[in-house]
Amino acid sequence: MKDTGIGKIALNLVLADEETSQIIKGQYENKGYSLVRGQVGTMDVKKIYAAVETAVFREDMIRENYHEEHALYHAISEAISGYFRGYVALDTVLRTTGLEFAVVRGELVVGGSSGGEWIAVVLYGFVGSPRRGFEHEAIGLGIQSI
Amino acid sequence: MKDTGIGKIALNLVLADEETSQIIKGQYENKGYSLVRGQVGTMDVKKIYAAVETAVFREDMIRENYHEEHALYHAISEAISGYFRGYVALDTVLRTTGLEFAVVRGELVVGGSSGGEWIAVVLYGFVGSPRRGFEHEAIGLGIQSI
Amino acid sequence: MKDTGIGKIALNLVLADEETSQIIKGQYENKGYSLVRGQVGTMDVKKIYAAVETAVFREDMIRENYHEEHALYHAISEAISGYFRGYVALDTVLRTTGLEFAVVRGELVVGGSSGGEWIAVVLYGFVGSPRRGFEHEAIGLGIQSI
Amino acid sequence: MKDTGIGKIALNLVLADEETSQIIKGQYENKGYSLVRGQVGTMDVKKIYAAVETAVFREDMIRENYHEEHALYHAISEAISGYFRGYVALDTVLRTTGLEFAVVRGELVVGGSSGGEWIAVVLYGFVGSPRRGFEHEAIGLGIQSI
Amino acid sequence: MKDTGIGKIALNLVLADEETSQIIKGQYENKGYSLVRGQVGTMDVKKIYAAVETAVFREDMIRENYHEEHALYHAISEAISGYFRGYVALDTVLRTTGLEFAVVRGELVVGGSSGGEWIAVVLYGFVGSPRRGFEHEAIGLGIQSI
Amino acid sequence: MKDTGIGKIALNLVLADEETSQIIKGQYENKGYSLVRGQVGTMDVKKIYAAVETAVFREDMIRENYHEEHALYHAISEAISGYFRGYVALDTVLRTTGLEFAVVRGELVVGGSSGGEWIAVVLYGFVGSPRRGFEHEAIGLGIQSI
Q1: DSSP secondary structure string, D37-70?
Q2: Chain B nearest C-alpha distance from C73 (Å)
Q3: Which residues of chain A have pLDDT under 70?
Q4: Which of C65, C108, C145 is the closest to B71 by Cβ?
Q5: Residue E141 contacts residue E129 (beta carbons within 8 Å)
Q6: Do β-strands A118-128 and A135-145 pair in parallel, antiparallel, or remain unpaired?
Q7: What pLDDT score was predicted for residue B2?
Q8: How many CB atoms lie within 10 A of CB C18?
Q9: Is the pLDDT of residue E1 over 60?
Q10: What single DSSP character describes residue C78?
Q11: What is the pLDDT of residue A2?
Q12: By C-alpha distance, which of F15, F43, F24, F31 is closest to F131?
């Protein structure tokens, strides 16, 4: 069986309720991972970038240099690309979104050694027209070496 | 708080271990959902389509007409688009994948009423070069009215 | 020979002059189809979505639930994707468009039975720089089960 | 009202039955246009390129140099991009197609003068799974200066 | 060995310092090419189109008709597509750019004969977050028959 | 003025003749960069990945772990995406290519400090139909933190 990957940790974190979420954080911080969770609602794609970056910087999960910021940016871009399944747009296509995100930093698989650290970004939420109930779920995961 | 969506049911099913997976199936079949889970390893994108469609037909989750097959096809396509984050290819780009999938059919949110049934397809697995350990996780979710 | 498809009905409707357009509407309404035609000029992609949705709702062609609105939205998205041939944008790329659209709802082929109804959206018009004569034609067709 | 564009000529040609098709050809050849029509059925995208190019060369619609071949190639590529609405693939995504195509060369609009000749390529047909009736229509139009 | 292509002329022009740039211009103007170089800094993709088109019109490199403007527009679009590697956006994805561009018109390869003239557009610069040093280089080249 | 970036080093290397190429290699190896150059001709996109990876491994430019291989893979993918300007395909679209590539590893800008090393991949060559002279130039650049 596959070992638990950094992506699965982030997926479990974003899908958990508040209480379980705290348990997951504690469990993986003990194994050397950093984890953060947040949320954002917007019709503007760049606010998703900004919300994730702000949460990561606030928790000191990455160092303030371009080398690490670039890896984070690419991980967010891949998560966004998956979340929108092909055409990245909200207001332009009459859509809005409310989503929760999780970011995890550490080894690629628990107990493994891939030659350095990785960062995983997950977005999970609802995309739809700006009208209650006219929306469905979406998910996106981006993983980068950092 | 948001009610549980059909996407989250499929995500929880695909991320669960074998035992929990059976519990989830039982729990949501009681609420009127159909659920199926399977796996496929390949360097050929069309085998992902084929594996999911075969599992769905075998479980009689969709009726044998083009109307329903078309909705399933689009749900798989969206899941694949999210899984590959922008460029859908495996062998062409020297990559291979091993993944598990889950398909769920029923209401868009548990206890809700959106005017008809929906189908959710999730793919979760590892994409990488055909070399042990040189791979990372990916996820994709597609949801269609059926 | 192929039977007449719902796409060809919509294409013929959008390409016809005003008078022929009325004849086509009458002819296919007698066979159980709903048809609507309209136009929009804009530098803003979301106005295309809005114009088509407004026309469809005004004619009561779809029921006011998310199940049907979602199918319409996907049909418009596919028509827009075809109309712009790869990169969906107007103002961002210094372009404007004036187009006519047609929407048809009914069986996939005249006299056929595919297990349910379908919706076809066609966009036909001119895309170009905001300068008289500096533009050429484009077309897009999206078809979804509804 | 808009004058008839080269795209509409090609669209009308491809949608017409055999007899009307001959009338359209005669009518626009008298106005200085070249027109050709053909068909292809395949699971292989490059056969669409090959079928259109072969028909165009056989009718001497373009000169045997790279300048004109390049314009034709781009017009076919845009038509294909529109026909597949975002992801250009057939066998890779378990799909097959049978289509008719039309190519027209001449002024951009009838009686107009845009500074040179143009070429329009239209593809119209059915895309679906390799199973009778499990398919729907698609259309694509590409226009290039030549 | 390959002869020097119009793309390499444009690449050398954009990468050269001011002085060498003048030498390259003189050298290829003697061989019948037209060359122009300029720069633009923006968070708005359409300003890249506008800056290149303005420079080209000011130097009378293309005739004021849609036939030639269309070829230029497509060459810019291809250069932009290459520059952004897949997803064309700046402000939307929290990015800004400062770039230099070069446009060259003439034969496809020096001393060759491909049946007409061609236009090459190169963009070279830095893309990144709006924060000093948080950016890296990008390049894009588009070539069209004109 | 901007300092020389890692991308410009790779661009100059790939565009240089054999002799100048050796001078560039020597000059930047003295500043702590690793540089490699090679070539590949193919109708198969994955052979471009394989040729670049093989050259890089042969020169020991990256360590044999997934962390570094992943960064290289992404840099190649971005270069390929730029080289093909939107649709990554060769045989599928009746095209072939002959190209030269350069890979450079080191600081993001000469004398700078961005918090770690980077890798730049450049592809430069001709793409066209498999017929002498029916081809034009293309370029692609991908840069990743490593």
Answers
A1: EEEEEES-HHHHHHHHHHHHHHTT-S-SSHHHHH
A2: 11
A3: 1-2
A4: C145
A5: no
A6: antiparallel
A7: 60
A8: 8
A9: no
A10: H
A11: 60
A12: F43
